[in-house]
Amino acid sequence: MLLDKLLTNLTVEVEPFALCQVSPGWRLRLPGPPKPLLHFVLQGTGAVRDPHEDAQPLAPLWLSVVPVGAKHALECGSSVQNEVRIDAPPPGEPVCHFIAGTPESAELVVACGLVSVRYGPSVSLFEHLRQVLAVDLSDRPGMSAAFRAILAEQNQAGPGSKAMTAALMTECLVHLFRRLGAGPSGSLPWVTALEDPRLGRAIDRMLDNPAADHTVDLLAETASMSRSAFAERFTAAFGRSPMNLLKHIRMQHAAHLLRRDATLSVDDVAARVGYSSRSHFSEAFRKHHGSAPTEFRTGH
């Protein structure tokens, strides 16, 4: 099953968490995150409100996923009359605290953190998420212990804390993707699309060898579909054409190589993602990432 392959090849990076505490009758407004944001309910009930002011319920051991840039709010109680607005996280402790109301009266307690979740090194699984998700994971064993362990690791970081945090988060995300994969289609395009073995074969071909001379015809042949049917199904599933996604995969893989292997020259990286010309590669990289390959490497 391709969903199993997806879960086996997750690459997860976790940034420092925040702890949100909301008292009854209060709302905590949060800015649109620069990366996908997870809210995990440690205790209490409430709601997460999306940019359109539509609310979804939250309860203990529920996990909410907020898309990039989506302004949203956490609230507690049936009658919300007070509000706190957060524009940016405060400096200080590794795990910062956001409080709407008072810590003593807080009923809704939520662990929140930015995450990067990829299929292999190149494909962001939350990239095409356009709606705030709220998923009940209360029947999944170990969820509360995993998130509390993540907070503990970040509060008292030691050798291997980054790897431990990523491993704990991966466990939680496996539960999330299992639930999404079993639910209605469309909530997370990558999950549902990769369950189609035809599209999965085409994606695997691009991921396994980004530098190859891929064409829509060859990818359609790999998927055992006609060119027109493949292009239509692919674009509907992933929100972009096969060649557009291929370029994205190449640029993401190039960024991964620049960050992780200082022994590779820019020419080597260009060749590994299918560019014979350094200048063409550098131009494409700058358009995609906002900086030249050498500048990107220096900053990362």
Structure notes:
- The chain is α+β, with helices and mostly antiparallel strands and 300 residues long.
- The chain folds into two domains: 2-185, Jelly Rolls, CATH 2.60.120; 196-299, Homeodomain-like (Arc Repressor Mutant, subunit A), CATH 1.10.10.60.
- The chain has eleven helices and 13 strands.
- The strands form two sheets. Strands 1, 2, 4, 7, 10, 11, 12 and 13 form an eight-stranded mixed beta sheet that branches.
- α6 packs across α7 (227-238) and α8 (242-260) crosses α10 (278-289).
- The longest helix has 22 residues, at 161-182.
- The radius of gyration is 21 Å and the shape is globular.
- It starts with a helix and ends with a helix.
- The mean pLDDT is 87.
CATH structural class of the largest domain? Mainly Beta
Count of runs of 4 or more consecutive helical residues: 11
> For the residues shown, what is the average pLDDT?
87
What sequence of helices (H) and strands (E) makes up the elements? HEEEEEEEEEEEEEHHHHHHHHHH
- Per DSSP E runs of 2 or more residues, the count of β-strands stands at 13
Uncertain stretches:
none
CATH topology of the largest domain: Jelly Rolls
Oligomeric status: single chain
* Helix content bin: 40-55%
- Please compute the radius of gyration using only Cα atoms: 21 Å
Class from secondary-structure proportions: alpha+beta
CATH superfamily of the largest domain: Regulatory protein AraC
Q: Give the distance, in angstroms, between the N- and C-terminal Cα atoms.
A: 35 Å
Number of domains: 2
Just name the CATH architecture of the largest domain.
Sandwich
Strand percent estimate: 15-25%
Q: What sort of overall outline do the alpha carbons produce when their principal axes are compared?
A: globular
User: Major sheet: size, sense and barrel closure?
Assistant: 8 strands, mixed
